[in-house]
Amino acid sequence: MNILELRGITMDYGTVKALDNIHLTVKQGEWLAIMGPSGSGKTTLMNIIGCMDKPSNGAVVLDGVDLSTLPAKGLTAIRRDKIGLVFQQFHLVPYLTALENIMVAQYYHSMPDEAEALAALERVGLKERARHLPSQLSGGEQQRVCIARALINYPALILADEPTGNLDEANQNLVLGIFRELHREGHTIITVTHDPAVAERAERCIVLGHGRIADQRQNGCRTGEVACTCANG
């Protein structure tokens, strides 16, 4: 069963075509990595899938809903109810504790539940850091709070934009280990990354070049293949 379908997605910014007739399907429970050089359209594609932008042409179907038919308010509801977002820059509220940052996400979805929020932190190994502010957490810990926040409302799709971009190797491996467990549990994950070592963890990888899908690999990307594709794309 497909959880996501992109049908002829095009995105124009004046005379610049950021995306050019993208067709893509993602199966429920799949882990997909998106790679490509700067300017290839990765962020634009992520923003469209995440309901933050509307394409110039084409349709996005998420969990059976054609997003092109929805007004702005409807897209906000889809983003809130069906998508869990993990960012490179964390975007945690600085004056709220780790626990409170997760409960804010609950508030906008339904209602806060402290026990459930604590369980989400425990899942990412941070229950004992629940009362700490973001400034009291390491980069890896902040990213794990972001993952817990993304999961708290049981999204149909997890979108991760460069989730390890600001982390050292040890924290990168820890965060990727969490994603691996989520994938094993059946979660659908799309990861945008510039790092072939991260893309290798996914079961499938597509490579963008000049707004098109230039290449794709099943069972992740091998470093040499991706480097070659990106250089030529």
Automatic annotation (TrEMBL):
It is an enzyme of class 3 (hydrolase). Residues 4-230 form the ABC transporter domain. Its EC number is 3.6.3.-. One of its GO terms (cellular component) is membrane protein complex. Gene3D superfamilies: P-loop containing nucleotide triphosphate hydrolases (3.40.50.300). It comes from the Bacteria. This is Macrolide export ATP-binding/permease protein MacB. It comes from Methylomusa anaerophila. The lineage of its organism: Bacteria, Bacillati, Bacillota, Negativicutes, Selenomonadales.
